[in-house]
Amino acid sequence: MDAALQHAIRRMTDEICRILADCVPAVYLYGSAAGDYRHGWSDIDLLVLTGRPMTDIQAGKLLMLRQTLQDAEPETPFYRSFEGGMIDLEAFLNRTDSRAVYWGTSGQRITAQYAMDCFSLRLLHEHGVLLYGPDVRSCLPCPDTDELLHGVQEHLRAIRIHGQGGRSLYTFGWMLDIARGLYTAETGCVAAKTAAGEWALNQGLCPEAQALRLALRVRQDPSLKQDASVLARAEMFGPAIQAFADVLEEALERRGLPLRFR
Length: 262
Known about the structure:
Elements: H1 3-19, E1 25-30, E2 44-50, H2 56-63, H3 65-72, E3 82-88, H4 89-94, E4 100-104, E5 107-111, H5 118-127, E6 129-132, H6 145-162, H7 169-187, H8 193-202, H9 209-220, H10 228-234, H11 238-254
Parallel strand pairs: 2-3
Antiparallel strand pairs: 1-2, 1-6, 3-4, 4-5
Helix pairs in contact: 6-7, 6-11, 7-8, 7-9, 7-11, 8-9
């Protein structure tokens, strides 16, 4: 892991734990930052579970912590990439109202609940890194294969609606999302996007292999998203995305999960 990224994760963890010192926080790193991080593409996903609910004052301090650290260290480019949620363990488990802080791509807010999708929960169990505090993962549900497959099914519905070409990083992301869903459909397990994309290529599963290779290149070198020729190709990605989605749909049908959409 890059030294500057390590510093940002350590600094963010220290500040979160300082603010929540009397709440017994457990801080987890999961997702891309735990093994497949690409700056300019990936988020730095955190989950913070506390032994007791945070106060309004604590929630207010956490709400703007990303901006506070970015302003304090403008030379460190990672703080705005942190995403995730902070909530007390009991409320997280029971999905009851409490005081939660959410950080997302479009902003941050204080809310009553915070939940994770089945893929994130499985990744937390299998590849998450405990950064601070007691390890409470044994208390958390671990999604089984059926739950993961239904999650893939829901994601495929979104791909059918929104997975079109465009001059955006999301265009390349659709190809890798399909590869990750296909990996789950075929193996019952979860994988990082890069690993899933490489697996799909090696298995010969993508009918538009060149498009998937380009998506992997852009993930490995996000500076390519500024390349005019690459962006021009992305605008034409719609048919490749949908052709690859056909493969995923067929895999789900073999599992007894037809899309029932088109």
